Amino acid sequence: MTSKHGVVLYGPPAAGKDTVTAALNQLDPRYAQFARLKVGSGKSSGYRMSTAEQLHLLEAAGDVIYANTRYGNTYVIDRPGLDAAFEAGVPVIHLGQVDGIRALVDGYPAHWDVVLLWCSREETARRSEDRGDPDTAARLAAWDATRKDLDVHAAMAWDLTVDTTMTSPDETTQRVHDVVLGRVKAEELGR
């Protein structure tokens, strides 16, 4: 039985993944956002910047759990990065694709609590503009892709679903934490 616990926050851009992750870290410093590898340009904060050559080496070694392309960049969840994240605590992984969740859950043994954070397209636009994103149109296209992804994978089971337009960041964070604690306690009881 594994004692590794991780959290996946799925949802469209501006649904609150960064806000909830930061609040989880304040609640318990063991929570930390998983810094995916990023091959490309643009924002580097929160990523481990990499090269196409390094990505090919990881692929050859079988160490790529999931990779996707969005905003002209490639984002990678890699086995060595996950190993290090679990050694440090409870990784929180942000994803916008159900295929990525499935690849992670099937490809890396751990207890994954999968949370759907949702907000409307209009709210994504408002939040994106409020935070000064230079690429709001691309984020709305990503929102559309996320909505389509959910429609295609309607049978996806979530450990928790939260509409972040109806639930405060503090309440959302506590609810995510409670799901993780519930899983940990259930595991302890099952021993």
Write a structural description.
The protein is an alpha/beta fold. It has a domain at 5-34 and 90-189: 3-Layer(aba) Sandwich (Rossmann fold). It is 46% helix and 24% strand. The protein is built from 7 helices and 9 strands. The strands form 2 sheets. It has a 5-stranded parallel beta sheet with strand order 2-7-1-8-9, sandwiched between helices. Helix 1 packs across helix 7 and helix 5 (121-130) runs antiparallel to helix 6 (136-152). The longest helix has 21 residues, at 169-189. The radius of gyration is 16 Å and the shape is globular. The relative contact order is 0.21. The model has no long low-confidence stretch (mean pLDDT 92).
Structural key phrases:
5-stranded parallel sheet, 4-stranded mixed sheet, 7 helices, Rossmann fold, 191 residues, alpha/beta
How are the strands ordered across the major sheet?
2-7-1-8-9
Please tell me the overall pLDDT. 92
Under CATH, the topology of the domain at 5-34 and 90-189 can be stated as Rossmann fold
* H and E string: EHEEEHEEHEHEHHEH
Estimated share of beta-strand residues: 15-25%
In total, the number of strands is 9
Supply Rg. Answer: 16 Å
Structural class from helices and strands? alpha/beta
The largest pleated sheet is described as:
5 strands, parallel
Alpha-carbon distance between the termini?
Answer: 9 Å
Q: Judging by the overall fold, what is the CATH architecture of the domain at 5-34 and 90-189?
A: 3-Layer(aba) Sandwich
Number of helix segments? 7
CATH superfamily of the domain at 5-34 and 90-189: P-loop containing nucleotide triphosphate hydrolases
